[in-house]
Amino acid sequence: MNVIRIPLCASSALAERGKGVRFAVTAWGEDAVAFAIRHHNIVHAYLNRCAHISLELDWNEGEFFESSGLYLMCATHGAVYEPETGNCAGGPCRGGRLHKILVEESNDQVFWIPDEYVRPVIA
Question: CA spacing 20 to 30 A to 13: which of 21, 22, 43, 79?
């Protein structure tokens, strides 16, 4: 099977627990935003929608980590998520999780891989 890899950014654009890179996607047939971050030197990507209420997480564009850098946090209601899994770690998300998007890093480049729900933007 041929896997579609879509270029996202240079590896250097994602600093450890730093600012994330936002990118446009189509999620469940609608325009949406996703993001990628680096945590423990591994790139993770998620749909930018809080599991509590379908709002974007970042409090300033690309700012997803809370002050300790240990968790991703929804700026609106304070739900916190584990960067490695997207699982809710506290707050109003109660057992929810972020929709994880597969990513691959090779040759100093980060790529994202569409799934059955999150696809490239429809032109």
Answer: 79
Percent over 70 (pLDDT), the chain: 98
The CA distance from 38 to 121, in Å, is 23
Q: How confident is the model at residue 1 (pLDDT cuts 50, 70, 90)?
A: low
Cβ neighbours of residue 111 closer than 8 Å, sequence gap 6 or more: 5, 6, 7, 8, 103, 104, 105
Distance CA 43, CA 70 (A): 14
> Can you tell me the distance from the alpha carbon of 27 to that of 114, in angstroms, rounded to the nearest whole number?
10
Lowest mean pLDDT among 1-10, 31-40, 69-78, 110-119: 1-10
